[in-house]
Design a protein that fits this description.
- It contains three helices and five strands, in the order ββαββαβα.
- With 126 residues, the protein is an alpha+beta fold.
- It is globular and about 35 Å long.
Length: 126
């Protein structure tokens, strides 16, 4: 089983089961209740994950226009001071930025990321 991690704007973390292999863009869009997603790279890679992969997060590309609530964790990941709106999904991608494939996380990777996120953002994982 593979998972995407959903980080709701109001806090917390939810593992969403997906099929192994490449996750369809339509599936991620449906999980975010949108028709257009935007993918951004998480600037830090926790130890213990595959070195040939990077972590990315997907957001509703129209979240600001829809007046979705700001997502504190997504805003921190963005590193510009500009808010990120709505829920986000953490996914695994290949390091080659030209490769648009999105992959789910294993159970071990999901547990590792939950622990890492709770250490980075303890107020959201009480």
């Amino acid at each position: 089983m593979h998972y995407l991690l959903r980080l709701p704007a109001e806090g917390g973390c939810e593992a969403v089961a997906v099929s192994a292999g490449v996750v369809a863009v339509e599936e991620t869009a449906a999980l975010l209740h949108t028709d257009v997603t935007e993918r951004m790279r998480i600037p830090v890679m926790p130890e213990g994950l595959e070195p040939e992969c990077v972590l990315c997060y997907l957001i509703d590309a129209r979240g600001g226009d829809k007046e979705l609530p700001a997502n504190f964790i997504g805003t921190c990941f963005y590193h510009t001071g500009c808010p990120v709106y709505g829920d986000l999904l953490i996914v695994k991608c290949r390091e080659n930025s030209g490769d648009a494939d999105i992959f789910g996380l294993t159970e071990d990777e999901t547990a590792l990321l939950r622990t890492w996120l709770a250490a980075q953002f303890p107020a959201y994982f009480i």
